[in-house]
Write a structure and sequence with these properties.
Blueprint: E1 2-7, H1 15-25, E2 32-37, H2 53-64, E3 67-71, E4 74-75, E5 78-79, H3 81-89, H4 91-94, E6 95-97, E7 103-105, E8 112-118, H5 123-129, H6 133-146, E9 149-156, H7 167-181, H8 190-212, H9 222-246
Parallel strand pairs: 1-2, 1-3, 3-8, 8-9
Antiparallel strand pairs: 4-5, 6-7
Helix pairs in contact: 1-7, 8-9
C-alpha cells in the first residue's frame, strides 16, 4: 500500500500542506508514503508529437500509489491555481473520450483519494457559508470523471492568523493516516448505491404515508390520496437530495 500526498498551493510549508503531511505521518508500516509539492513542477498540457516528461513523472507517481491525499487551500472559493493546473493538464490522461463525447475513466480508474483543504472562515461561518464546498466539489468532479473513489475529507477552518496546526486537527489527521494504511480497496460500490437508494425510497414512502394519515379525506378519495402522495414524496425526496448534495461536505 502506497499513500501519495499531492499539494497544490502557494506555500509547501503552509497549513494545508502541513495537514497533508500530518495525514502521511499517521500512516503506519508496511504502507509507504510520498509527498509531492506541485510548485516544484513546471506543469504544461500535452501537445501532439512533443514529449511531456513532467506529466509523465506525475502520472507515474499517481499510478504507483493506491491512495491519493489531495491538498489545496481554498482561494477565492475554489482550488488553488497550482492544483487546478494539474487537474486541467492531466485531464486527457485521467479520462478518455468516446466518439459520442462521453467522458469515461482512464488509467487511474478504481484508485482512492482523500480531499484536504483550508479556509480563513471560522468553522461556524464555513458551516453556513459553505466556503470550502466549491473546492471539495471541484476535486470530486475530477476524481469522479477519472473513476477514483473518495474515502474522506479533511477541512481546516479559521486559518486567519494561525501559524501552526491545532493539536486536535493533527490528531484527526494522524487517525485518518492510520486508517489509510489498512484501507481495503472498494473497486465497485454499485451494490452499496442500490441498497442506499432502496433504503432512501423506503424511508421516504413510509414518511409520506405517515403524513397522509393526518390529512383529511385521504383515506376515502383515491385521487386526493395519489396527488398528496406524489407531492409529499417529492418534497421529502428533494429535501433529502439537497442535504446529500449540498450538506455532505466537511466544514470543520
Amino acid at each position: 500500500m502506497k499513500i501519495l500526498g499531492v499539494y497544490g498551493g502557494q506555500d509547501a510549508d503552509g497549513l494545508t500542506a502541513s495537514l497533508v503531511k500530518a495525514v502521511l505521518s499517521g500512516v503506519t508500516a508496511p504502507a509507504t508514503t510520498e509527498f509531492v509539492d506541485l510548485n516544484q513542477y513546471q506543469i504544461r498540457p500535452d501537445v501532439s508529437d512533443l514529449a511531456n516528461p513532467t506529466l509523465d513523472e506525475l502520472e507515474a507517481k499517481l499510478k504507483s500509489a493506491d491512495v491519493w491525499v489531495l491538498g489545496t487551500p481554498t482561494y477565492f472559493g475554489t482550488v488553488a491555481g497550482q492544483f487546478k493546473q494539474l487537474l486541467d493538464c492531466m485531464r486527457h490522461r485521467m479520462t478518455r473520450m468516446t466518439k459520442e463525447s462521453d467522458t469515461l475513466p482512464g488509467i487511474f480508474k478504481d484508485k482512492h483519494y482523500v480531499s484536504v483543504t483550508s479556509c480563513f472562515a471560522t468553522g461556524l461561518d464555513n458551516t453556513f457559508t459553505h466556503q470550502t464546498d466549491a473546492t471539495l466539489v471541484a476535486i470530486d468532479k475530477a476524481m469522479t470523471a477519472a473513476g477514483v473513489h473518495k474515502i474522506a475529507e479533511l477541512v481546516l477552518p479559521h486559518t486567519w492568523g494561525m501559524t501552526t496546526l491545532p493539536e486536535a486537527k493533527i490528531n484527526q489527521a494522524h487517525a485518518l493516516g492510520a486508517k489509510l494504511a489498512t484501507f481495503k480497496k472498494k473497486d465497485d460500490e454499485t451494490l452499496k448505491r442500490y441498497i442506499l437508494l432502496f433504503g432512501m425510497i423506503a424511508v421516504m414512502a413510509l414518511a409520506t404515508m405517515g403524513i397522509q394519515q393526518v390529512l383529511p379525506g385521504v383515506a376515502t378519495n383515491f385521487w386526493w390520496r395519489y396527488v398528496s402522495f406524489v407531492v409529499i414524496f417529492f418534497v421529502l425526496l428533494a429535501c433529502l437530495l439537497h442535504y446529500a448534495t449540498f450538506m455532505r461536505h466537511k466544514r470543520r
